[in-house]
Amino acid sequence: MAVDAGAKLDVQKIRADFAYLEERVNGKPWAFLDSAASSQKPRQVLDAMREYYEHSYANVHRGVYTLAERATAAYEGAREKARAFVNAGSHREVVFTRQATEAINLVAYSWGLNNLGPGDVVVVTELEHHSNYVPWQYVAKRTGATFRMLPLTDSGELQYDALDEIARDGQPRIVATNHVSNSLGTINDVARMAAWAHANGAIHICDAAQAAPHVAIDVQALGCDFLAFSAHKMLGPSGVGVLWGRAELLEQMEPFNLGGHMIRKVRFEETTWGELPHKFEAGTSPLAEAVGLGAAIDYLEEIGFEAIAEHEHELTAYALERLSEIPGVTLFGPPPERRAGIVSFDLAGIHPHDVAQILDLDGVAIRAGHHCCQPLMQKLGVAATNRASFYVYSTAEEVDRLVAGVERARSLFA
Amino acid sequence: MAFDQLYREVILDHYKNPRGHGVLEDADASAEGQNPLCGDEVAISIKFADDGDTIDDVKFEGRGCAISQASTSMLMEMVKGRRASEVAVLPKEELLDEVGIPLTPVRLKCAILGLGVLKVALHRAKGTPLPEEWSALANELEFNEGSAGA
User: How many pairs of residues across A and B have Cβ atoms under 8 Å apart?
Assistant: First the structure.
């Protein structure tokens, strides 16, 4: 397992925890460079989920027997880990969802549909993943609010100084931005966006799906009102995510899903809602998945986010340097000091799908496509990009294999 | 799988030197389509001979991955001079045999994009319904009827 917090990350020790690295492709392990889409899972996470299913499983909260008590303690224990992970004030503010997308939809439907109207302005950015773009575009259309998009600079960073012009279009009510861009890796100044939102009478929702795997999250320091992330991008299982929201906002909001567990009292005439966070957790939750998320948080915190950031920064800087030496390569996004472990590039004359397929033949996995960011692709003037992304188990040798594969694609198409 | 199995010389040749590339003025039938997954685009225009059925000339324009563009280029050579009524029901296997490389489900959609566009154009011009197999794909791949031949 990983090294002590504060020390440098021991990548070989970490790699021993990941079973996918045991397979050999042409004599080499997979070079999995698509963690930004979804990360691989260490044994510790899978073991925690198996242990839960085998020895602590029952439905949670109302069972009076020992297994149900164990199941509830593990599930609520995972909530406490998630609370500490984002430095939230109370577990009441931590809602388990299916993933970041559902968390954002919860806010869009429960808060957006009931609080927006004509004259209001909904602000997103050109850098958003569709998950933090489409829900806001939709509720703006449904409510008659104005939908506006904060543009990017040529280096793929937000044009913060364009905000005030957007405010002239009406009353800003919600500002939706990601913390780290999934396409370009840009690290955005969320605290600045949240402060601007509050100064202009709006609330701020932060999509932290791409940040949570890489940087320590502190909702109090960021100053946002809602924050969403997914377990599957941070070594945890698919099927569970978290919405953190300010208790005073969550309390005022209508429920999102209706059904079992989220109620206080059900009568023919009327139903009243349960306490936070249960009001937003109708039905049986992703129980083992939440436990897996808790184990992933433990794993990451044992490595330490400073060590993770340093490791990714080294790989990103190295990849940018090596790729920039290849003729025909165009790199997108900001310099390495202002980006997370994501490198997006174009190779002249060769479609990203061809590049990705050629790399796959050599066991190198990258993503080719629009990365759920079609407005951004329009801005960059491309249909798609090649994207390599790095995580705790990535190595410089894998970057070398990426570079060799890109060279090979070039010579094949020359 | 080896590189040369997937990106055979003939595929790369069609990609770099597409056959039947361009747009036909006064086309009798046309259509365009794109694969939203990867942004491949193909537009095809067709001119019939005096018998109103023989494909006298056919051209395509497009951009995208090598598989989508090369397979459409091969398709141009395959259908020119054949009867539209025959090509409208051409099984996709005939094209895929010509392409001759193993394709994953994702790449299969790249390979048959051009054929789907061609079928939309021909069925529209003939006023016949697109076979079910292709209409499902048409929804997924965003085929549009071209302006010509309307």
Answer: 46
